[in-house]
Amino acid sequence: MMLRRKTLAMLAALSLAAGAAACGDTDDPSPTPLPDAGEDVGPDAELDTDPNPDVEEDVDVDPDPDADVDPDPIVAPTPGDLVITELMKQPTEVAAFEGQWVELLNTSDAELELEGCALGSSSLDEAVVIGESLTVESGGYLTLAASANAGFDADFILEGLVLAEGEGSVSLDCDGTTITEVVYDAGESYPSVAGASLSRDPAFNGATDDSGDYWCAATAAYNGADLGTPGAVNPSCIEGPDASAAIADLLLNGPGDDGKLIEGATVTYVRPMVGVDDAGFFVQSRPEGPALFVAVAEGEEMPVEVNDVVSFLATSVVSNGGATWVDGFESLTVDASNGDRDALVTDLTAATDLITSLNSYTHRIVSASMTISGDLLTFAGPGHQAYPVATEGVAEGAQLRMATELRQAFGLESGCEIDLSMTPLWRFEETAQFMVYDATEIDVSECPELSVVSATSTSATQVELVLTRALGPILADGSQFTIEGLTVTGAVVDGPKVILTTEEQTSAAEYTVELDDSLTDIFGATIAADASATFTGFVALELVISEVMARFTGGNGDPGEFIELYNPGTEDFDLSGCLLKRDSSSSNEMEIDAGVIVPAGGYTLFASSANAGASLTVAQELGFGLNNGSMIYWIECAGEVLDEIATPGPQLGRSFQKDVNRLVTPNPAGSYSTDVWCFTPGAEGDEYVVHINANDEAELKFGTPGTANLACD
């Protein structure tokens, strides 16, 4: 790379020197002297034969000296007056016959008229003639496109224009004279990248010759994935490593058999693994993109940090939901740690093309101001929740997608105004998704008033409050919470929840907890003066949903899915005729067979297949598939719901289980307590079966089906 930069710099210097020599530039600043009177100035010099030069002759005088005079007439171009500075031979967003174009620069001091000139190429038998007046001002650019569907507003549509997509040539001829010409190859010395124009370095716009060293592949997006700067000044080709063209080529053509080398890309964001979304990092080289997500395999250490400048070989890509990203790479090096992420951020607040140009925005680091425009969406992928949002530029088609626990902590709702900074733009099909994984990336204002969602007794001396969003600082002694007939002795904030410690409650008694109006939410807004909620004194569960495996291998209805029930009582529990349910659909419920019991102090297993793994004893096969997203499951006997649990999005190969020491604690309505429920750790010894998948690969599965649960740390 250094050799090429030095070569370009030397060529630029030689080009400027040659131009100066052609203009007669010398070191002597003195004017050229006029010839003496009577000096022979050449055989063709005209002699003044007027015998009386002092006698005034009749001359025509303009009666209106203020009449308009065109000091700079429009002229026909001569060789060198116009230079081909850019050409798109291989567009990818549209077909070549629609998206090919050529850019010309007027390097002369005059406005030029191109009517009658013809643009020819090696793919045309006859050059295409410009059949009407078409001018380009001094120093201006002119774009000639094959169609109006080229992806930008071209200056002139030159129907019949065809450029060679491999090696070829293009020229402009006026009055039988070639004004400018480029003869390019298929990548040997000239750039040849699908989706990227050939871009001439501005340092060589004045050169009278042409060379592949003057050109590079464009890196700025103008039409989705296509790169170029039609009608604008080209960027320099000698700015150093630029990963944009390589990223664009990778997204379009894949890594090929030998992989695709990405050099000099800046890490803009590091994403944790959430739900089934891979951990990884985003890279970008220019504000206008393109950008790329690189997944890091589960269990692998994150190899980069934000603002690292990295190079790596992309070996495989995956496409899903309209996006493409790297899921295999090698030879990663951190070349520097002085990248400038701030300089790469695009503010999308006013972008009216956010949805129509989603290809060009995907995975870029962005900022935006927006308003939540609707209720929480029913599904946004495991481990995530999302709201529809509107920006100044678009009213629909965009979402705010957040990690579930972060969303719950903020307690956002319709009408909240949001400012995002430094976040990657994801997509699902044609929906733009602003992603948030860290509280520092989001600033919230103008939300509806904080309120209490529910109160639930989780033990004989503990009450869990759920609010619409997290509280600010509270008094640890619980004095800001009042329960008539029950003394509150402590309070702890846990996201949008408050855990109250009380004296021993009367079982099944009705209580009301009132919140002091001095409490504020995390944004500093006060709570409603009458904020309160009722709950029932603790009643221990008599039957418990104790464990759920919702994602054994991959899709819904996996062979190893299961639901486990636990009986905390001292007598067997007869499940005959009870209903095991998933969500509210009658098609997702199963009547339990006669004679099925849960032994006293024991567990009973319901699985999607009789051979759910190892030598498990399955009481009855499930009559419905479990869900790969967040879901509510419950057990109902004789019309009474004995237990229910709202699970988060599942983790692959790990069950979601209840703490062995908290099995009789009721679950909050429509939720779960993070200190009571957890995913089975993936530690050695916690696996219960080795599953051989369809690719004949061994997969460890973690859980405790049919046996005692673990403690959630």
TrEMBL record:
Start and end residues of each LTD domain: 525-650
Organism domain of life: Bacteria
The keyword NADP is assigned to this record: no
A UniProt-annotated Pfam family: LTD
Stretch forming the signal peptide: 1-20
Xref: InterPro entries: Lamin_tail_dom, Lamin_tail_dom_sf
Keyword Mitochondrion: no
Record keywords, A-Z: Signal
Residue numbers spanned by region Disordered: 19-74
Positions with biased composition (Acidic residues): 37-71
UniProt cross-references to SUPFAM superfamilies, sorted A to Z: Lamin A/C globular tail domain (SSF74853)
Gene3D superfamilies: Lamin Tail domain
Name of protein: Lamin tail domain-containing protein
